[in-house]
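Exercise: predict the fold of this chain.
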Amino acid sequence: MELAMGVDNLALVLRALGIGLAIESLVNPDTVRRDLYGDFVELLVSLQREHDSTKRSSHTRARR
């Protein structure tokens, strides 16, 4: 899997997002679903896999 950014930066962004959502849930408890962060990470991973799959398919077609 080839990431669009370095692993360190990706980890930083995900950590900051998690901290931000945690703070938001303290300030406005009704606005942040408990599983929002997990749903976002799942979406991010599925988009990355889709991107990788598309990239592999186009690379395979180009080689033919």
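Check your answer against the key: The mean pLDDT is 89.
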